[in-house]
Amino acid sequence: MSAAATVLLDQTDSTNAEARRRADAGETGPVWIVARRQTSGRGRRGREWLSETGNLAATLLMTTAKAPAEAAQVTFIAALAVADLLDAFVVRDSVTIKWPNDVLIKGAKAAGILVESGTHPSGRLWLAVGIGVNLAHAPDDTERPATSVAAHLRPDIAYAPPVEAGAAVLADAFAVWMGRWETLGFQPVLDAWAARTPGLDQPCVARLGHETVSGVADGVAPDGSLRMRLADGSLRLISAGDVFFNEAA
Ligand SMILES: O=C(O)CCCC[C@@H]1SC[C@@H]2NC(=O)N[C@@H]21
């Protein structure tokens, strides 16, 4: 991927929606679209994503010749880049990833990733890699605990980074992981991701929309799907959904 430009908006509905509009209009990227404020931020599975002022809302718009299944691996790049961003500011050894792409500080969600895609006018695939990071604030009305960078700063750091600085650290980290993916392939990326993702051998529950499945995680498949061993001994591959670890149904 060539070096990405950055566009900083004071306000937009959603940086992912802005990326989609730009892709539909023929923009190829790579470009980071960063907003100080989103009025309709979206989360996974149709949920709303509230990003208060001071939090990072950013989307990388890019186009690729890869097939959709392979291109989806970019979520793992995003999770690793976000983990690096958090590592730069928060207390040591507190950042982990939860399958597939939530990034946690001391077990509470501090960042979420929403990758959307479509067909570019050129016929290639466009990707909108949307990343929300609770730099300054965390919502207090979430089903599961949420937290922020500001709540876990390293002792030698006085403030959470402003949006511009957070976006710059994120873009740099993303470029490093992207370079590894492009030159070495997905396996080393997946290995790095797995090393930061506890619970991949623990009891877990997957909420898949139409059904809830419980079992024991059994690592990840080569494409990053979660392998889940069910009570009857069968193996189920989970490629999307909400998964909660260390939990039985
Ligand atoms: O549900 C999740 O965990 C994913 C949240 C993704 C939020 C980010 S904020 C920047 C980008 N724009 C959006 O509307 N959503 C993503």
TrEMBL record:
Gene3D superfamilies tied to this protein: 2.30.30.100, Bira Bifunctional Protein, Domain 2
Keyword terms: ATP-binding, Biotin, Ligase, Nucleotide-binding
Keyword Iron: no
Catalytic activity: biotin + L-lysyl-[protein] + ATP = N(6)-biotinyl-L-lysyl-[protein] + AMP + diphosphate + H(+)
Family annotation (PROSITE patterns): BPL_LPL_CATALYTIC
Coiled-coil features, chain-numbered ranges: none
SUPFAM superfamilies attached to this UniProt entry: C-terminal domain of transcriptional repressors (SSF50037), Class II aaRS and biotin synthetases (SSF55681)
PANTHER family cross-referenced by the UniProt entry: BIOTIN PROTEIN LIGASE, BIOTIN--PROTEIN LIGASE
Name of the protein described by the UniProt record: biotin--[biotin carboxyl-carrier protein] ligase
